[in-house]
Amino acid sequence: MERADIIVCGGGTAGLCAAAVAARMGKRVLVLEEDAFWGGAPIDYRINLFCGEPIQGIQREMTEKMRLFNPEMTNANAFFPGSYLLAWKTLLEGLPVKIRTDTHITGVRRKDRRIVSVLAGEKEFCADVYIDATGNGDVAYLAGCDMAYGREAASEFHEKFAPVRADRAVQQCSLMYTVRRKADCTHDRPADWAYFDKDNYLIWGPTETVEDTTDPQQLAAAYGRALDKLLALANEWDKKGFSVCEIAPKIGVRESRRLRGIYTLNLNDILERKVFSDCIAVATYNIDPWDPDGNPLHRGENVKTPYYQIPYRALLSEKAENLIVAGRCISATHVANSSCRVMAIAGATGHAAGAAAALTQNTVFDVDVQKLRALLKRQGMFVDFFDAEE
User: Fold this and answer.
1) The whole model's pTM is what?
2) Which is it for strands 242-247 and 97-100: parallel, antiparallel or unpaired?
3) What is residue 111's three-state secondary structure?
4) Strand stretches in 121-256, DSSP E
5) Interacting residues of 281 by C-beta distance below 8 A, sequence separation 6+
6) Of 112, 220, 252, 332, which sits most exposed with the smallest number of CB within 10 A?
7) In sequence order, which ranges of the chain are alpha helices (DSSP H)?
8) Contact 163, 153 (CB under 8 A)
């Protein structure tokens, strides 16, 4: 059995932020990543553009390091995968963080409400506190926490964009790719392209509906269908004077299982700027649900959000006293998740999770929230509206 003070399951944006913060606070951290490589969405989905605001805490520091590797970038929020990995490698250097790849969580041992260890096949890993940053909520699910999948009925939270009846529809998946301008290209850059510099552009590619986004076989089939569509698109790009130069190795998943935690963030909390005494991050991003029956953005209903607060309780389950959830699987409705799932906000919840885990003495419920908020503020996080709006 391998032991650490804190185990972070998931080596993506939320998990790396959590690991770095906890390690800086003196904790021995073990990161368990299911892929052969760590980095998360910027590496395997090629989401090489930060969505959401503000970039805060450890993530701001990381992006500043990233700029040193690609100073020629003309889009402040875009980056290449290489600079992303190198920046994290630099930031984690010298910290008590160990990353194990090819380690897929297959089980959880627990006693009463406490997780004793997590299993990856025949391997067992033990810690005082666990952070679920898997994206799919794997640890919370295996630990028996209440989980949500799909869309809530409009009557449950009285949300705009929620369907009349609850269903299992989740946000669609997209295959990301990049194109590069050829030397003889005279085509101007359309406003809706994400760009790295004057010659390289990130494209939101073919979109696929997947019934169960936790099923690797269904995702593999969706990738194949999207790749077929991309083959035709490559010919169109060639006619415009661009070449397809990179395709994501995985189809991008926006939503899968979500924690149903002590508190569930919903759309009305966001739009009405609800104030939470246990707020651990202030953020904003438009409502962007990519629903199979039509994205509001694509219908001309661009729902921009004000700055909103995310409560610590949305990271916790009453059924697991030493587990904190971070990233896209925090406790939020399907509609609210379409905003808080993006990387800048996932990184913020990861930072908060890492700090809370490091402060935990017995259970994650006993953390002094005001002490946590004060600490987060000193670490460059925004925990009150006036922080983000200044």
Assistant:
1) 0.96
2) unpaired
3) strand
4) 123-126, 129-132, 147-148, 173-174, 177-181, 194-195, 200-203, 207-208, 242-247
5) 56, 309, 310, 345, 348, 349, 351, 352, 376, 381, 382, 383
6) 112
7) 13-24, 41-44, 57-69, 81-92, 138-142, 154-157, 216-240, 267-271, 334-340, 343-359, 369-378, 385-389
8) yes
